[in-house]
Amino acid sequence: MSTSRKKSDGSQQEAALKAYNDIRHLQSRLASLLESRETNGDKQSISFGFTVLSSVAQGNYERAFAELESVGEGFEQYRLFKVRTYRFVEHAKSLVSAIRVKHMIGRSAHVNKSKQKELSDKIADHFMELKNTIVMIEKIQKSVRAEDLSSTIYFVKTLFYSTAFVILVSGAIYAYDYLEITPTALFSLDLPD
After folding, report:
1. How many structural domains comprise the chain?
2. How is residue 72 annotated by DSSP?
3. Which burial class, exposed, middle or buried, applies to 22 when counting CB atoms under 10 A from its CB (0-12, 13-18, 19+)?
4. In whole angstroms, what is the distance from residue 160 CA to residue 157 CA?
């Protein structure tokens, strides 16, 4: 039993270390992207999810909440986007709140080392869950855009085929008038009596 407990403690420590390294990587990448964004004026280089995760990693929870509030901006024309993302956005907000609370409790001088370790493990778990939730929101964004593109393609194809049909029919009518052939004479069957 103690070996399985050591293995689970080891896997929890590895997960916490991975989350910590992810947080450090996000912080350094965000700093470089924000610097390049300010110099280039590029607004599309940083994704919504990256901004939220980096803000949480830096402890800027208000910015993370603001980004989560603005998830639907630019998607007003898609009717189902808000409906499909609402629960994920609310879950992400609750995870950011949980990370903030646990981080504040962990900073307290009255918390012993074992409780701090437990809190840091929970923060890492919440961070990974937040990462997965944001991936789901971004997948919904991509699928909504793909659905819109497919409906646009369907509309363009329908328009092309109907225009081609109208041109073909008008060409046939013009040809009948030009050749002085009536459609009934063209399709009539001369049956012997």
Report:
1. 1
2. T
3. middle
4. 5
In a domain, 61, yes or no: yes
Closest CA to 91 of 116, 71, 117, 77: 71
112-120 long-range contacts, Cβ below 8 Å, gap at least 24?
Answer: 120/16
pLDDT tens for 112-166 read: 888 888 888 888 899 899 999 999 988 888 888 887 777 788 888 898 999 999 9
Please give the residue range of the domain that contains residue 96: 2-144
DSSP state, residue 45: S
- Residue 57: exposure state from Cβ atoms within 10 A (0-12, 13-18, ≥19): buried
End-to-end CA distance of the chain: 103
Burial of 173 (0-12, 13-18, 19+ CB in 10 A): exposed
Largest CA distance in the chain: 113
pTM over 0.85: no
Residue 180 resides in a domain: no
Instruction: Tell me if 174 is assigned to some domain.
Output: no
Do the domain assignments include residue 186?
no
Query: pLDDT digit string (tens) for 40-59?
Result: 544 444 577 888 888 888 88
CA distances for 73 relative to 67, 68, 69, 123, 184, angstroms: 10, 10, 9, 29, 60
User: Helix 81-107 crosses helix 61-69 at what angle (to 10 degrees)?
Assistant: 170
191: phi then psi, degrees, rounded to nearest 5: -95, 135
